[in-house]
């Protein structure tokens, strides 16, 4: 168990990344009950936006200066794509049967992937992304925190705090809650629900862009396919935490990340379970956990904020 | 409550979709129309033209295209005009099978080059065999494809008489890697990781057996999932196992990230792999300096072969968008082998393509012998290349440098 702290740190960093992406699923679902399967691609496009911003900067720019600009560049791109998707793909289907926007989202995901594959220079192969240079931080003998992991572990709680305050305190945030509870009544009370829905898409996209920058800084590369699996995992995290609940998304992400990294490290050490351990089975254990949680608490760990709505 | 059931449905879909990760486009390339009186012979090409392995797939397609164009320009087979029909398999076995069916359905297709992945080849072999269409893979390395499922027990039996390859098998490659790592690099304790695919798992098993036979120790094993990107937990297991090297059976997208993440844990040990990681994208995928990482690949470096000079010059002159990559030379030779087989069939039939050309070409294939881009091209009784040259490459200063080229001896 010597490497337990290290594996916990790995799981936390991975989970925080899942959580940042999961916000996009949960906000949109909380307000319009749409599972936006194209959100993984919004994340990917955020990464390419950030890379474009980095390339546009004069070479030799310090990463300390570049990272905020990359986040801004990524967020502008992903928010633009997400709001355009809302306006042109989802809004016309607002009153259609629920399966129609779901299938549209899957189609949109394929389209966005192929567009980046085809149009972004050299995107057919992984594109290298600036990495945070330097040694890992040594915390204990058996715990090294890589700089990119530290970045996401600091940034994710800050983003969550900002989002929590925004939703609870600001005028727009309260309008968002009202729309989630009952869009028709909210409209009658003078809330511009279309604007609120666009805002939910935009906030989710901005969080995805932050996640994409964190991902790129950690892995040193981004590619046009990266949104698919991470999007599925983040969606899983959102369901695990209770879809529609913004804190649930982060909790679900962290639980999922920890489940993956601990199952890779320790399942194989249980006597008789050697065959069922290691990286090959991490997804299986993560989904076993999801199923168990949903059996016991169908509303997810923290519960759906909008569960009373039916 | 209606959307609760929808949520459960989509959750179930998600679980399933994790294994079905492919979506993409089809890239048909039928060449330009030609209405002269020459007989058209189509060489099918099947390779991943989209997706993360497209760098290799595009190189295969272009190289076969170059072989066909060269044959047409030199009038290699009088009266025959070669064309290629390239289909995209996205490295997915089911797509490969559908493509094989599409190719054999076109009566002008006389042979096919491809695929890249051994797993895809498994699903295509039966289709080509049934239709009696010759298939030459430039890159498949799994031994079972040509020597039967019991090759490990020494019972070699050729399952499909239509299957040939210009690439050496994993038996040769895995053993060569183990011998290099043990004898030349003096590594004694290796951690073995594979990607659970036909190619990767097979290669890792052959490597492990040979490494143990030489006296080395396997410090541990783990598996990664294709298209995943976070291997930090596996990387930390490698570090705490105190291994002095890592062997990875798999492809460059996962290999590059794995090597990168192992080095980030502070373990300064090299990762070695097969031809699946021998690609420039392995280096760019693994961002930080991964100097010292090793890969084996079939054949001698194309750039160093005297026979390859024309190929490289012609490829450049043809102005293809993507480089010929790791399998360009083998793909050109695979295409050229089909052209040579057609040539001998046509020559034996008074300069015309016989009605049973497909069957004749399969027969002629086993007698094909010529000096190709990668050396002497000929096939043994299993359809495997007789050329068993291999090279070990090492990453030095962000490029692959060849460190040892040799002919494999068992």
TL;DR of this structure?
By secondary structure, chain A is mainly α.
Number of strands of chain B: 14
Going across the biggest sheet of chain A, name each strand in turn.
Answer: 1-4
Q: Structural class of the helices, strands and pairings of chain A?
A: mainly alpha
User: What is the number of helical segments of chain B per DSSP (H or I, 4+ residues)?
Assistant: 13
Please identify the top-level CATH class of chain A. Answer: Mainly Alpha
Average pLDDT, all residues of chain B: 87
How would a crystallographer describe the biggest sheet of chain A? 2 strands, antiparallel
Structure description:
The complex is a heterodimer of chains A (310) and B (410). Helix content of chain A is 69%, strand content 4%. By secondary structure, chain A is mostly helical. Chain A has a single domain (4-132, 141-296), classed as Orthogonal Bundle (ABC transporter involved in vitamin B12 uptake, BtuC), CATH 1.10.3470. In chain A, the strands form 2 sheets. Chain A has a two-stranded antiparallel sheet with strand order 1-4. In chain A, strand 2 (137-140) and strand 3 (143-145) form a beta hairpin. In chain A, helix 2 crosses helix 8. The longest helix of chain A is centred in the first third of the chain and has 29 residues, at 4-32. Chain A starts with a helix and ends in a 14-residue tail after the last helix. Chain B is α/β, with parallel strands linked by helices and 410 residues long. Chain B has 2 domains: 39-168 and 304-379, Response regulator (Rossmann fold), CATH 3.40.50.2300; 171-298 and 390-407, Response regulator (Rossmann fold). Helices cover 40% and strands 20% of the residues of chain B. Chain B contains 13 helices and 14 strands. In chain B, strands 7-6-8-9-10-13-14 form a 7-stranded mixed sheet, with helices on one face. Chain B has a 5-stranded parallel sheet with strand order 2-1-3-4-5. In chain B, helix 2 (54-73) runs parallel beside helix 12 (328-347), helix 3 (93-105) runs parallel beside helix 4 and helix 12 (328-347) crosses helix 13. The radius of gyration of chain B is 22 Å and the shape is globular.
């Amino acid at each position: 168990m010597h490497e337990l702290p290290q594996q916990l740190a790995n799981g936390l960093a991975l989970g925080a990344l899942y959580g940042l992406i999961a916000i996009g699923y949960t906000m949109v679902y909380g307000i319009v009950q749409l599972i936006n399967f194209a959100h993984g691609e919004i994340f990917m496009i955020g990464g390419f936006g950030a890379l474009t911003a980095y390339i546009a900067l004069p070479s030799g720019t310090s990463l300390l200066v570049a990272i905020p600009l990359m986040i801004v560049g990524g967020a502008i791109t992903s928010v633009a794509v997400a709001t355009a998707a809302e306006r042109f793909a989802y809004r016309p289907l607002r009153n259609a049967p629920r399966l129609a926007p779901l299938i549209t989202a899957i189609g949109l995901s394929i389209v966005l992937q192929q567009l980046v594959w085809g149009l972004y220079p050299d995107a057919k192969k992984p594109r290298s992304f600036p990495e945070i240079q330097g040694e890992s931080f040594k915390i204990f003998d058996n715990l090294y925190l890589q700089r990119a992991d530290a970045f996401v572990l600091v940034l994710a709680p800050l983003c969550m705090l900002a989002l929590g305050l925004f939703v609870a305190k600001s005028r727009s945030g309260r309008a968002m809650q009202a729309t989630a509870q009952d869009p028709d009544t909210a409209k009658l009370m003078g809330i511009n629900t279309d604007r609120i829905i666009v805002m939910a898409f935009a906030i989710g996209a901005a969080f995805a862009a932050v996640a994409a920058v964190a991902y790129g800084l950690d892995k040193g590369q981004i590619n046009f396919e990266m949104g698919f699996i991470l999007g599925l995992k983040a969606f899983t995290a959102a369901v695990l935490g209770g879809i529609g609940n913004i804190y649930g998304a982060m909790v679900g992400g962290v639980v999922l990340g920890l489940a993956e990294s601990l199952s890779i490290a320790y399942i194989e050490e249980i006597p008789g379970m050697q065959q069922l351990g290691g990286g090959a089975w991490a997804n299986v254990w993560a989904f076993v956990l999801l199923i168990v949680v949903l059996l016991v608490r169908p509303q997810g760990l923290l519960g759906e904020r909008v569960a009373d709505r039916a | 409550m209606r959307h609760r059931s929808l949520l459960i449905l989509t959750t179930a879909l998600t679980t399933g979709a994790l294994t079905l990760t492919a979506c993409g486009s089809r890239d048909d390339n039928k060449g330009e129309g030609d209405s002269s009186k020459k007989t058209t012979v189509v060489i099918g090409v099947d390779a991943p033209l989209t997706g993360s392995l497209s760098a290799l797939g595009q190189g295969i397609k272009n190289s076969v295209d170059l072989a066909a164009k060269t044959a047409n320009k030199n009038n290699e087979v009088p009266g025959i005009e070669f064309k290629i029909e390239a289909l995209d398999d996205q490295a997915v076995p089911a797509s490969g099978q559908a493509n094989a069916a599409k190719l054999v359905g076109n009566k002008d297709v006389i042979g096919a080059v491809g695929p890249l992945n051994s797993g895809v080849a498994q699903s295509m072999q039966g289709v080509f065999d049934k239709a009696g269409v010759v298939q030459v893979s430039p890159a498949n390395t799994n031994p079972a494809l040509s020597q039967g499922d019991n090759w490990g027990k020494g019972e070699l039996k050729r399952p499909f008489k239509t299957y040939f390859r210009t690439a050496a098998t994993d038996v040769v490659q895995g053993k060569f890697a183990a011998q290099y790592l043990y004898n030349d690099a003096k590594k004694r304790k290796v951690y073995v990781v594979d990607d659970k695919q036909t190619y990767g798992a097979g290669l890792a098993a052959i490597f492990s057996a040979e490494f143990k036979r030489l006296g080395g120790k396997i410090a541990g094993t783990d598996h990664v999932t294709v298209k995943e990107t976070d291997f930090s937990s596996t990387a930390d297991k490698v570090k705490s196992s105190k291994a002095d090297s890592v062997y990875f059976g798999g492809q460059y997208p996962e290999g590059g990230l794995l090597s990168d993440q192992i080095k980030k844990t502070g373990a300064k040990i090299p990762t070695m792999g097969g031809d699946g990681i021998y690609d420039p994208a392995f280096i760019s995928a693994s961002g930080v300096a991964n100097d010292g990482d090793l890969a084996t690949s079939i054949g001698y470096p194309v750039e160093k072969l005297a026979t390859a000079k024309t190929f490289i010059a012609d490829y450049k002159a043809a102005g293809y968008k993507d480089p010929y990559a790791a399998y360009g030379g083998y793909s050109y030779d695979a295409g050229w082998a089909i052209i040579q087989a057609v040539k001998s069939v046509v020559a034996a039939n008074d300069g015309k393509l016989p009605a049973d050309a497909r069957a004749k070409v399969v027969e002629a294939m086993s007698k094909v012998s010529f000096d190709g881009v990668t050396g002497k091209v000929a096939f043994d009784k299993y359809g495997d290349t007789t050329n068993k040259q291999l090279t070990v490459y090492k990453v030095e200063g962000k490029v692959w440098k060849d460190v040892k080229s040799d002919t494999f001896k068992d």
